Amino acid sequence: MNLIDMFYREIEDAKARKVPLIIPIGTMEYHGEHASLGTDTMVITGVLERLGKRKEIIVAPPIWYGVASYAVCGPEKNSVQVDCDPYEIYITEILKSLVYGGWKNIYLVFHHQSEGDGLMPMSLACMKAAKKVTMRYMEETRGNGWWGRNDMQDYYENLDTADNPLTFIKTIQLMDAATQKAIGGFDHAGKYETSLLSAVFPQNVDFERTHWNTEWFAIPSQEASIELGEMMVAKTLDYLERTIV
Q: Which residue ranges form the domains of the chain, and what is each CATH number?
């Protein structure tokens, strides 16, 4: 279900039951001649739409603009870059409203620059914002020394459960390193990302235009297929279903 479509009482019920609230963390970035500008965000929202048919989740509106960087190209090719410092502040304010409003099971899901299990400026900004909000919330609602009090003596027993306040907000990749390996690879605007986008948003890939590409990273898009994309979606869903609890 999409958060924007929900009514007040349904939202309050979801908070009480700790239904996962997922925020797609996206970018607007050049993806060759053949794929749309919003690819990074759209692959997340497309996969989450299918995940919602497997388990109960709530999907918040995506953060479309992100820390894209100008590693692939400059703004002349329509990439939109937000510096990580103001981006962290923006994410912090969003998370603050959600946590103080009662959400205690939030996932920030990113796809951009997530080869292997590498951490890059955008994902690090999200992680930092998440921990800042969590620590501030616990200190303001339970006071200084909240973790050291005796009523927290079961902290380590609850380390991997929803009762651990330090996991109110989690930042995860759309597909982790193990999933990427099982799929066969990972790329930017190439064989794999193009296939993934074509499976969830086929109208946003033009396979004929893959032959227009001249950049090294986009030329492999000529090997992309919807069939490969569907396999990628299936393995990604298995990973997300295990991870988002």
A: 3-176 (3.40.50.10310)
